[in-house]
C-alpha cells in the first residue's frame, strides 16, 4: 500500500486573503514577528499496491489537473510506500 500526500498552495504571486486574515489574527492574539502566512490544502490518498511507472505519472497528472488549479496553485507530492 502506498500513501500519497499532495500539498497544494497558492502561487507566491497570488494574493492569499485567508492567509492575511490569519496573519492579522495571530498579531492580535499576541504572536509578534509573523512576516507572512499562506494557507493551503492537503490531500492524503491511500492506494493499494505499488505506485510506480504509469501509475505514478497518472497520480502526478491528477494532482496537477484535479487536486490543484495550475493557473494559481502549485503542488508537491510525497509518496510513502508501505503505508499502513
| Largest sheet data | 3 strands, antiparallel
Order of helices and strands: EHEHE
| Distance separating the two termini | 7 Å
Please give the domain count. Answer: 1
Mean pLDDT: 94
Per CATH, the architecture is 2-Layer Sandwich
Q: DSSP strand (E) fraction? A: 25-35%
Q: How are the strands ordered across the major sheet?
A: 2-1-3
The number of helices is 2
CATH first level: which class?
Alpha Beta
User: How many β strands by DSSP?
Assistant: 3
Poorly predicted runs are none
The CATH superfamily turns out to be Phosphoribosylformylglycinamidine synthase subunit PurS
- The name CATH uses for the topology is Mth169, Chain: A
Portion of residues in helices? 25-40%
The gross shape turns out to be elongated
Question: Which radius of gyration do the C-alpha atoms yield?
Answer: 16 Å
Structural class: alpha+beta
What key phrases describe this protein's structure?
3-stranded antiparallel sheet, single chain, Mth169, Chain: A, alpha+beta, elongated, 84 residues, 32% helix
Describe the structure.
The chain is built from two helices and three strands; from the N terminus they run βαβαβ. The chain has a single domain (2-81), classed as Phosphoribosylformylglycinamidine synthase subunit PurS (Mth169, Chain: A). With 84 residues, the protein is of the alpha+beta class. A three-stranded antiparallel sheet has the order 2-1-3, covered by helices on one side. The chain has helices spanning 17-28, 53-67; strands spanning 2-10, 40-47, 73-81. The model has no long low-confidence stretch (mean pLDDT 94).
Amino acid at each position: 500500500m502506498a500513501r500519497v500526500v499532495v500539498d497544494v498552495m497558492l502561487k507566491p504571486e497570488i494574493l492569499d486573503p485567508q492567509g492575511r486574515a490569519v496573519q492579522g489574527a495571530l498579531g492580535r492574539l499576541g504572536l509578534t514577528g509573523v512576516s507572512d502566512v499562506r494557507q493551503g490544502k492537503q490531500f492524503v490518498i491511500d492506494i493499494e499496491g505499488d505506485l510506480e511507472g504509469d501509475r505514478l505519472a497518472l497520480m502526478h497528472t491528477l494532482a496537477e489537473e484535479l487536486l490543484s488549479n495550475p493557473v494559481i496553485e502549485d503542488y508537491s507530492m510525497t509518496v510513502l510506500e508501505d503505508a499502513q
